[in-house]
Amino acid sequence: MGMSASFLGRLAPNLAMWGFAGAGALFVVGSAIPLFQNDILLKIPGVAAYYTDNTPDSDKPF
């Protein structure tokens, strides 16, 4: 069982699918973590507006 070009060609779509699914799961699970939000999610242009905190300081308990 060598790593031939045809074997890697058949394996690539499956690995890509699992990679995208794993990255999606990481983003879903990590979206509740403030450090993940500030370091990663706020740097993505389409997602940043959703995670921006517009709450006035007077309404925050801490």
TrEMBL record:
It holds the Pfam family QCR10. This is Uncharacterized protein. Keywords: Membrane, Transmembrane, Transmembrane helix. The chain crosses the membrane at residues 15-36. InterPro entries: Cytochrome_b-c1_su10_fun (IPR019182). GO terms for cellular component: mitochondrion. GO terms for biological process: mitochondrial electron transport, ubiquinol to cytochrome c.
